[in-house]
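The data layer described in this paper is built around a simple, fixed record for each protein. Because each token names a local backbone shape, the row as a whole describes the fold. We quote a single record here, exactly as it is kept in our systems:

***
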Amino acid sequence: MNDIKKSFIEFTLNHEILKFGNFTLNSGRQSPYFFNTGLCNDGKKLNELASFYSQLIVNHNLEFDFIFGPAYKGITLATSISSILNSNHNLTKPYCFNRKELKTHGDKGIFVGSQPSGNALIVDDVISSGKSIIESINLLSDNGSSPKVVVVAFDRMEIGSEQMASLEIKNDYNVNIYSIITLDDIINYLATDKSLNKHLTLMEDYIKQYGG
């Protein structure tokens, strides 16, 4: 595990973005852990979170014309990542996000910020079933831009339709998927931490049941 992955896992644990317990997910599955970047709700934590995304983008030399963040969590991600790319890496990229409902007056339309044009980098918090990522890809494709890259904080490595969701999206939509960490990274981290390895068996059982 590289230093960035380790630092990011420790960041999520320190701020309880990653928590262990018994959680009911939107899918109805019972999960032994929960991951929520919505807890980055002040300038310091949000800048730290965006810095991890931005470092990944720069390290992989990702090419794109604009950043898209799906409502709602993607709104703060897109704006903060755009800002950190500029301040930390001298890279200026426009961003946009979508409204949940079409606006018919004033600044009409479904998008806020830059209008989608060219190659899109989609940012989101996690990939689980892949449904929300696919919705973003379809929305951008239907509005004249080309989704090329997806960057998430965490890949839960869960099955989509027939295989791991991130692989399905890559194969079905010709979109490259990057994550700061995966579930395998968390499991590897737990195995080396005596205070946390009590959660290891439940995590391994979960991925055996729902993994892609």
In short: Residues 70 and 97 are 6 Å apart (CA to CA).
